[in-house]
Each structure stands twice: as structure tokens, then as C-alpha cells.
């Protein structure tokens, strides 16, 4: 057994919160630059330039890219040969978020109760997903998920006889309904299969893939490329003011499912796509 | 342009036009709107309202990052506020038909700013003061002093809607 102090997890999460919120990942910057070169609308190009310039200012001045520094979503792949020493894993993660949002001057955007809506004041609790995997390492992924884009997400359970076109239409309708509100250009995470909760989880997990990287399956890869083309033909454009850049990527994750169902979930992230990961 | 805004200026602002704002604006979002009722904690006559709540101010800075939140969520509260005299709203995203009707009726304008460029926008803020509801934490109402704050007219006082125009141009 490899022993890892819980404190190390706290420290890592803390650093990831600040890093993700202030330093837009290279893959996202590269995708934005590529889109800028191709964008047909002049307003669209202007907005893309503003977005790229904002990323430079944020990095230089260590300022959050967006005022909505998100709900903290933490993905942990925990090697089964690791023993965590000290605090419980979950408390270590919440503590990391607490410290990161305080030290990084990040906005506290979590309410204690969904109806009463009192702010918890420290951006906890985080949403934590843990998977136990072989090995002796811990992989920690951090996604700062803003409300604007998250609110535009959707889930539908289709008939198993549904063809791909119908699923495509659902995805396109979701992106169209999101329009300017999701802060396009967006990243589209699609989860297909599993059940009600798994489809949604897969859609979120799909957002954590590097922009430009495709699903390893050939069919899914083709599907991603076709969907990206279709979405960019919608013409929503940067900020919803028209243009050829509506999405930077479409990432699909699939899972086996029940013979009587075909769940599909769409989770949208904005261009301020704040995902970072580290391996301990 | 600069607050207080009068009907003459409002009438001149046309959909798609880029504007620069200087002077006093107020920042408020969801929870504050719920508390406003018919009494926002500032003089609404000719005022500019920005749907926003910044990140915390780092030491030595004027403000943290600040940018627009989705205006659509403020729609249910908007007609009453326009009736009280608010002239300019700044946010991101679409507005409802009833907001558009109120914009025409009370002669107001809705401006948009890209979401997610809040580090860059913060450079246009010269002063920030909490003026109401400090108990709301990040959702407290702020009075901001801005300089050359850039925005685009998304719905003008005739009800022309930039998002709809962009949509039908596709
Ligand atoms: S959707 Fe994203 S970019 Fe837009 S305001 Fe929310 S967090 Fe910021």
C-alpha cells in the first residue's frame, strides 16, 4: 500500500482551483485561436479576440477569467493500492476547495439550500466523483462549472429504436435553446447510455477531455466530428451574435444500457472552460 | 455615455451599436432583485443597472473580475424596475417578450457584454462600493464608477432585438 496524507490532496485541490480559474488551458486557447482564423463574422472575430485577450490578462494578473468561478466539480481516480492517511477523502477535497477559493480570491457561489438560498460563504460543498481504479496513483481533476452554461444542459431518455438523427436533433435543439446564454463558443459534453444518472455523469466527464482530442472509438469519433460541424452550421456564433464558431468541441462518452432504454444527456460548458488535472 | 440617461439619448441608441459607458452604474443580480420590490436601494431615475457580481477584491486592487450574468433570469423583475425609471440594463443572453414590451413602453435599452471576459472588463472599474444587502455576500448591490466600459446595444427602445436579427440572418 502506498500511503498518501490527506493534506496532500487538500493542497492539490487548492492549487487546481486557482490554476484552473486564472490560467486558461493551452488546448482551449489553441482552439480559440484556430476558430479566430476561420470565423466568418467580423463581430464574431472581435469577440473571439476579446476572449483570447481576457485569457492573457487573467494569466498575467492572476485574475479569474470569469466572475463566475463556478461550482467546484472534482473528479478523483483513486488507485486501489493507495491508503489515505488522516482526514477522510471527502473532507480533504472540501477543505482544498475552501482554501483555494479563499486564497485565490474566487467568488463563493454555493447556496446551503436550493430553496432558501443562503450562501455557504466558502464555495463548499464541492461535487465529488470518485472512481476506484487499479494502481497506486491518485488522479485529481478539477472543473469550475459556471451557472450560465450549466443551466442550458438537458437529458432525455429515448426509445431504444431511436436512430442517430433523432439524438442529433435533441443535441442541436439543446444548443439552439442555449443560444447566447451559455456564453458561446461552447464545449458540448454528450453522455449516451448507462441510465438516468450515468448519462448525466458521462456528459460531464466528457467535458474533461482535452479540446481537440476525440473518443477512441472510430464510430464515436466520426459522430463527434459530424456533430461539431452541424452545431457550427447553426450560426449562433460567439456570444450568440452570429458566426461560424458556436462550439469548440463535441465530446461523446458512451456506456452499455438496458434493453428498453436509450438515455442521452447534454452538458454544456462555456468558452471559459476551466478544467485542470494532476496526478499524485 | 454617462448616467443619468434621458429619453433623448435612449432614442438615439440603435441595435448593434457599440457604446462606451463612463460614470456611475449599479450592479445587482438574482437575490438582490428578489429584495428590490418597488424600492431598489438607489435612485432608479435614469440609472444604469449591470447584472453582475464580482469575484472578491484582492489586496490593493479596486475590484476582482467582473462581467455580466444571464439577464434572462432577471426578466420577471424587469418591467417594474423600468417603470421606476431605470433606463439601461447590461447583461448577457436573451430577454423575454414581456421585457421587450416594457423596454418599448418605458423607453429603455438592453446592452450586452460578452460573458467570460471578466478579467479584462475589471480594468474599466475605477471604484466599487457596497451600497445595500451586504448579507447577500457576493450578491450585494454595488455602486461602481466605470470608465469607457464597452457594450453592444442588444435591444433598442423600439424593441429591435440583436439576437433575433442574428438568428434571421443565418
Ligand atoms: S457561462 Fe461561463 S463564461 Fe459565461 S458567465 Fe457563466 S462562467 Fe462565465
Structure description:
The complex is a heterodimer of chains A (280) and B (170). Helix content of chain A is 40%, strand content 25%. The two termini of chain A are 14 Å apart. Chain A has 280 residues and is an alpha/beta fold. Chain A has two domains: 2-22 and 65-145, no CATH class; 148-272, no CATH class. Chain B is an alpha/beta fold. Chain B has a single domain (7-168), classed as fumarase (Alpha-Beta Barrel), CATH 3.20.130. Chain B has a five-stranded mixed barrel. The mean pLDDT of chain B is 95. Classes of the chains: A alpha/beta (280), B alpha/beta (170). Chain A binds chain B through residues 47, 50-51, 53-54, 57-58, 61, 63-69, 105-109, 117, 119, 121, 146-148, 151, 179-181, 183, 234-242, 270-272, and chain B through 31, 52-58, 64-67, 69-70, 72, 92-94, 112, 114-120, 122-123, 136-139, 152, 162-163, 166-167, 169-170. The complex binds iron/sulfur cluster (SF4).
Mean pLDDT of chain A: 97
The number of helical elements of chain B comes to 6
User: Which ions and ligands are bound to the chains?
Assistant: iron/sulfur cluster
CATH fold-level topology of chain B: fumarase
Name the helix and strand elements of chain B from N-terminus to C-terminus, one letter apiece: HEHEHEHEHEEH
The first-level CATH class name of chain B: Alpha Beta
The description of the largest β-sheet of chain A is: 4 strands, mixed
In angstroms, what is the radius of gyration of chain B?
Answer: 15 Å
In total, how many beta strands of chain A? Answer: 10
Major β-sheet strand ordering of chain A:
4-2-5-10
Quick one: CATH superfamily of chain B? Fe-S hydro-lyase, tartrate dehydratase beta-type, catalytic domain
> How much β-strand is present in the residues of chain B?
25-35%
- How would you classify the helix and strand content of chain A by structural class? alpha/beta
Report how far the terminal alpha carbons of chain B are from each other: 32 Å
Percentage of residues assigned to helices of chain A: 40-55%
